[in-house]
Amino acid sequence: MIYAGVDVGGMSIKCCLATEDGQILTKGSFKTKEGLTCAEMAEQTASFVKSLAEKASLPESDIAAIGMGIPGTVDGKKGVIVYSNNIRLEHAPIVKEMKKHVSCPVFVENDANVAAFGEAVFGAAKGLSDVVLVTLGTGVGTGIVVNGKMITGKGGAGAEGGHVVIRLNGEPCTCGNRGCFEAYASATALLRQTDRMALRRPDSLLARLWAEQGRVGNVPFDAAKAGDPAGVKVIRDYVNYVATGLAGMVNIFRPDVVLIGGGISNQGDYFIKKVSRRLNRIVYGAGLNPRVKVKAAALKNDAGLLGAVALAVKGENV
Ligand SMILES: [Zn+2]
Question: Top-level CATH class of 2-122+301-317?
Answer without folding.
Answer: alpha beta
